[in-house]
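Tokens help. One example:
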Amino acid sequence: MIPPKRARRPRVRGVAALAAGAALLASCSTSPTPTSAPTSAPAGRGSGPVDVLYAGSLVDLMEKGIGPDFDHATGFDFQGRSGNAGALANEIKAKTVVGDVFIGAAPSNDAALEGTANGNWVSWYATFADSPLVVGYNPKSRYASDFKTMPWYKVVSLPGILVGRTDPATDPKGALTVTALQDAASAHDEPALDKIATDSADVFPENTLVGRLQAGQLDAGFFYSVEAKAGNFPTVPLSGEPSPLEAKYTITVLAGAPHRQGAEAFVKFLLGPAGSADLAKYGLVVSHPVPVSGTVPAGLSGVLSGS
């Protein structure tokens, strides 16, 4: 990279030059200039990027909350990339994406990166927060009033309604959505729900689903509550499920992380008081204490303990 040209100083002539020289000598004798400028960050702060690969349902939380707050508090530079958590895990395994921190939406995302067969990318992970699956709808949709008076499973099967979901093959939320549809189909004798669960025409990338709903391209969709809170659209709960259908967000530092110091600083921030406050602000149910699977690295032993 070619260094920028220095600005040309105006040439001082005659008496003015002598005066300038005298002033320079005087300043040098009283306030000597350091021989080298400090290059490290101030004590207690870091510098440089931290590449965080995270589940697309957390876009607003990461880009508007955690990321900026982490930068301000630590001096590091949050660099985020969102996507379907399962797809991100596949990219990490295939070495088509490089990251320092991985935030999944289910422990299965981390399991896909554990062990020799999967590249040993993950040796531990912490499950730090939950967010239930809900049906969100556009308040301007012609079906909006139906969500207030009818069960959700009746509304999503109405003729003409446009309902979006994510890919069950790559995204935990998509898999949970299929479970919800199939459970409701069986419990309420609604075969139309089975058809919705297998129709790929209503499958969209996770990081576009909220925007499609807000733009009126969809009448409704399956979301985590954290997305609905950030997007400010109404929801209805998936009542009647035999067990909770929810995201279980996990965090780990990937093996060979290029910026390990920053990665560990990010984990400490996310699990510390300021990060927990951001999580709660965006509607996540924060885990206390934080369950951990695997052996925690020494640098994080102060905030986590292995199982």
